[in-house]
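Two entries, shown back to back:
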Amino acid sequence: MTPHRPRGFTLIEVLVALAVVAIALGAGLRASGVLTDNAQRLSDVIAAQWCADNQLTGLKLGRVFPGIGDADFTCEQLGKTFQGKLITRPTLNPSFRRVDAQVADADGRPLVTLSTVLSRN
């Protein structure tokens, strides 16, 4: 008669397998969370870029030669409010001005900066 050998896994083997599965699932959840955060950040950056572009386009269409200095603005895109600043600086040629539009989120974290050069009409 042959000795009876138990079949199946031992408790230690089952616990090790469960630990491996738990670690894999945890890593998967972390990766999906990071992807979600990145998608939200990309959405905010695109909306901030629209805000900055709208401000610079308004200056171009207004055909006003801006004075040197800083000006704050707010913009709403995609249901969110963004804080921005127009920074106007002189250039080497007095007939041109450099204008930077910096946009930040509601917490003040910078999202985008767009620049243009405006000429005296």
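entry 2 starts here
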Amino acid sequence: MRPVLFLQFDGVDMGTADMVNREEFDFIRCINQYDFDNTDLNRYGGLLIPMSIDQYILQRNGKRIQQFLEAGGRVFHSGHIILPYLACLSEYKQLVPPKWRDFMVTQLMPHPVYEGYNASELSMNRGVAGFYSRGSNPPPVGARVITAIRNGTVPVDWEFDVGDGMLYVHAGNDLYHCSHDSKTVLHLFRNTVRYLGAE
């Protein structure tokens, strides 16, 4: 398993810290976002970017992230793209007008992140719809759309080849926190970081 860099807003929240500190995740290194400028990405195989990250930092490091991807790295980004930091990214588009049934999730293709789980089960969280996503980071031409809302017409999760690497984008809350069930959270987190660290 290749080492994975976990970029954090201001330390790791307690729920995530409990997972990261598990022995099985000893290949993950967590750093504060403000240390990212001086971090050698060549030491890592994957980069995990949660939704709370300051996108000015990502924009400032866009060229480095692009080079990381082209060299075979993998990046997983959760959240709304407000400042596109790669040429293949576009600004987030909110679902308008939203209706309750539009927030139901459709899984369009299998993917290692959802291995052993179906994304449609994330449509509701404690009886609330829309926690998974309320819009789209429009995928570039050639991207593989993995999940969608509004009857499968609005892409939410997609994967795109960049050089020898892969970019995975989820247009919503941190994917592994889209469920209130602790077993599901751990399962999705495990799948995500293993995907990032895969040879």
